[in-house]
Specification:
binds alpha-D-galactopyranose; 349 residues; four-stranded antiparallel sheet; five-stranded mixed sheet; alpha+beta; 23% strand; single chain; globular
């Protein structure tokens, strides 16, 4: 029996920048997904996860089915296509990363499964190679045109530090999160699910269209001057570009403020990120705005924003050490009284 795990991710800042060759700053959630796996002598794969329909198929017969099993099928499909020698297996999955909460439970599952398979079949793959394999599975078999942030975070991130990833250079720097800062994450209860994939892929296509219009390789090369030039021709595309340009700047500023222990500056940047995601990138929804406001109004909280792709999922906030638990509870209560929905506190645990 082989046992492996991987965390969910919460991105501190740098949203919708990864597929534009930009900067992101994810950290690991304390919640992890655990896979227990026993190799078989044949080509049969059977995977169970409490509360979900079991998955069963033969290696080489992986097809997109539109269910959670696609993450499993995607992983074995990518490995066998790359020439890795694996056999069938029986596996059980236990996950504490909440699904649909915008915390990348899918990447946690992919990376945990890949780690278990690496151990069981002695695959020569380092953690970064696992991240790229997981990304390929998600893009080519699941069908979500996601960037690589989630899979890299699930493979490399640790709690207590963030990964500053420069997607253009594939450069990764570990950034300590000072103990004076606590992270709050509340799941809005509105699932960021596959149904929203259309809107995600559409945003990505808009970024690519904007880069083409500007004659640049990706929006990483865009400037605020480009935003001004584009605005009279296409105001919507100009807003998308402005989000990406300003968000990359916010990531840099956030890392500097974090190093200086300036929580209030970090919070202001987080607030600005939310405003930009709402107004320029248009991926927020009313409930996320209400939840972010509810968090901002708590004592010791310095800023709040939607986390992940948007259209649902979670809100992240930064708080002074010692304030997070009470602030999260009070904000969830206020969210309930304003929207009638139950927000689930994911962090602090
Ligand atoms: C999803 C994708 C990531 C990233 C975020 C938005 O989580 O999987 O690649 O694009 O949305 O920042």
């Amino acid at each position: 029996m082989y046992r492996a795990d991987a965390p969910g991710r919460v991105n501190l800042i740098g949203e919708h920048t990864d597929y534009n060759e930009g900067l992101v700053l994810p950290t690991a959630t304390p919640q992890r997904t655990v896979v227990e796996l026993s190799p078989r002598e044949d080509q049969v794969v059977r995977v169970e996860s409490l509360g979900y329909m079991p998955v069963a198929y033969r290696l080489g017969e992986e097809r997109h089915a539109g269910d959670w099993g696609d993450y499993v099928r995607g992983v074995t499909w990518v490995l066998t296509n790359a020439g890795h020698q694996i056999r069938g297996f029986d596996a059980g999955i236990a996950s504490r990363v909440p699904p649909g909460a915008g915390l990348s439970s899918s990447a946690a599952l992919e990376i945990a499964l890949l780690r278990a398979l690496r151990d069981a079949f002695s695959l020569a793959l380092d953690d970064m190679a696992l991240a790229y394999a997981a990304h390929k599975a998600e893009r080519d078999l699941v069908g979500a045109r996601v960037g690589t942030m989630d899979q890299i975070a699930a493979a490399l991130a640790r709690t207590g530090e963030a990964l500053l990833i420069d997607m253009r250079k594939a450069n990764i720097e570990r950034v300590p999160i000072p103990e004076s800062v606590e992270i709050i994450v509340i799941d809005s209860g509105i699932a960021h699910d596959n149904a929203k994939q259309g809107a995600y892929n559409e945003r990505r296509a808009q970024c690519e269209a904007a880069a083409r219009r500007l004659g640049i390789a990706s929006l990483r090369d865009a400037t605020l001057g480009d935003v001004e030039r584009l605005a009279p021709q296409d105001a919507m595309l100009a807003r998308r570009v402005r989000h990406v340009v300003s968000e990359n700047e916010r990531v840099r500023a956030f890392v500097a403020a974090l190093a200086a222990g300036d929580v209030s500056r970090c919070g202001a940047l987080v607030d600005a990120s939310h405003a930009s995601l709402r107004e320029d990138f248009e991926v927020s929804i009313e409930e996320l705005d209400v939840l972010a406001d509810a968090l901002r109004s708590q004592r010791g909280v310095h800023g709040a924003r939607l986390v992940g792709a948007g259209f649902g999922g979670s809100v992240l906030a930064l708080a002074n050490a010692g304030c997070a638990a009470d602030a999260a509870r009070a904000a969830a209560e206020r969210y309930r009284s304003r929207t009638g929905r139950t927000g689930r506190v994911v962090m602090p645990v």
